[in-house]
Amino acid sequence: MNVGSIGRRDFLIGATTGLAFGYYRLAKGDPWVAMPTMIEWPFNGAVLNHRHGVQASEGLEIVVRGLAPFSDRVSVNGQPAERSGHRFSAKVRLKNQVEEIVAISEGYSGRQEHRIRVLWDRNSIPRYRFAIDDNGFFLRDIAQKQYQSLFDCFYLEMLRKFHQKYGTKFVLNIYYTTGDGFTLRDFPDRYRGEWADNADWLKLAFHAYADKPDRPYQYAPPEKVIADLELVQEQILRFAGEATYCPTTIIHWGMVLPATLPALARKGIRVLSGYFRKLQGVWDVNYHLDPVRCEYLAGHDALMDFDTGIVFSKIDIVCNTVPPDNVIPTLQPLAEDPNTAEIMDLMTHEQYFWPFYDHYLPDHAERLDVALRWVTEKGYKPVFFHEGFLGVPGDPIGSPQAK
Question: pLDDT digits over 213-243, tens only?
């Protein structure tokens, strides 16, 4: 029966009288139903680290919390849970990278269980990554001007200075074409040695075929996304070499169909970053994840999708949208919340560095400098997300060592 079709008085009878004992009914005369046993925390797919419990050599001890019928006996991973009304809690020790947590309740209405899986980021350290989207202009500039060095281009020289100053590692997500006749096939391979010499801090990755149209992969079939990815990958390997190429972590506009995710995973993609924000009441730049997971990601660093092996990461700042004076006020609250403090996912867009661009930002480099100085002073280490697990040494998901 639909709740909206019953009288308010009858619904309140079921909601107040029944729930007091762990049962409910939608209307007077309907059968009583036991409230579902449910783990509320941690969230299914949660990425947990030392900030979420007590970490020791034998594992990470966390407190699992949830709901169950009032009078039921509840156990979590075989251990009796403490009860307080409808709520239960129990200590669980995570010993493996991937752990299943099972809550079982038994009582008058029978036996119920709720199973979730979580991921223990067991080698976690405070870290940050920096990605730059929408790249193409700097490649066109180098190809047209035939510089002696890659770093004769002011853009790459600026990034090298940030690396020298802060140790920052950059991933540049690139287009196949700038849309004005230049394509990656026009970029010479004579800089391969220089790319290789700087591959420890400078990587190239797929972003899209071109900047326009907007949202090119939001409803595109998987075959289109993979074809464009392979087109860009082929050219990066040709002119920059294998050491410079890395799997992308940001698809243009952060939108692909759910059916595309397994195909991306087969291409070695293990992390996808997005905004996971609401625009006019609709979740957006979220790879079409459901609202429940989007809401979780809006307040957490990362979430594991065990079906594909992809970790979704919440982008913390887009520097071209945040003036220098607002950079620290944007980042500081994240460092004070254990759910968002461990990983800083930083990014910006290339075009705002170029004076010919309509929306050129003269202070764009200053915005990066403020952000990079802040994460460095706070003790965050620069990483590449595709290395290890979210940038720290360890076993990638799916390897035998991860069990």
Answer: 999 999 999 999 999 999 999 999 999 999 9
Q: What is the CATH number of domain 38-120?
A: 2.60.40.10
Rounded to whole angstroms, the Cα distance separating 109 from 223 reads 49
- CB 393, CB 87: distance < 8 Å: no
* Residue 399 or 188, more confident: 188
Which residue from 367, 369, 371 is spatially nearest to 344, judged by alpha carbons?
A: 371
**Cα four-point dihedral sign 97, 290, 229, 239:** negative
Residues with Cβ within 8 Å of 220's Cβ and at least 6 positions away in sequence, in order, are 256, 257, 260
- Residues 266 and 167: their CA atoms lie apart, in Å, by 31
Could you list the beta-strand ranges (E) of 42-136: 47-48, 54-56, 59-67, 73-76, 79-80, 82-84, 87-94, 98-107, 110-120, 127-135
Residue 341 near residue 127 (C-beta atoms within 8 A): no
Instruction: With a cut of 80, say whether residue 381 has pLDDT above it.
Output: yes
pTM, rounded to two decimals: 0.91
Are 402 and 97 within 8 A, CB to CB?
Answer: yes
If pLDDT is split at 50, 70 and 90, which confidence band does 109 have?
A: confident
Q: Which of 136, 175, 170 is nearest to 346 (CA)?
A: 170
Per-residue confidence (pLDDT) for residue 23, from 0 to 100: 64
The predicted pLDDT at position 402 comes to 41
Q: How far apart are CA 256 and CA 221, in angstroms?
A: 9
Q: Residue 171 corresponds to which amino acid?
A: V
Instruction: Give residue limits of the domains in the chain.
Output: 3-34, 38-120, 127-402
Q: Count H helices and E strands in the chain, helices first.
A: 9, 23
Stronger pLDDT, 73 or 4, i.e. the higher one: 73
Tokens representing 161 are: 């200075």
Contact 58, 45 (CB under 8 A): no
The owner of tokens 């802040």 is: 374
Token duo for residue 199: 């591959």
Cα gap 317→330, rounded to integer Å? 7
pLDDT for residue 32: 66
Are 153 and 354 spatial neighbours (Cβ–Cβ below 8 Å)?
Answer: no
Tokens 């709520």 appear where?
Answer: 87
- Point out which residues pair with 103 in neighbouring strands: 76, 114
State the residue for tokens 């990815």.
229
Task: Specify whether the CB–CB gap between 127 and 392 falls below 8 A.
Answer: yes
CATH of domain 127-402: 3.20.20.370
Query: Residue 226 belongs to what H/E stretch?
Result: helix 222-239
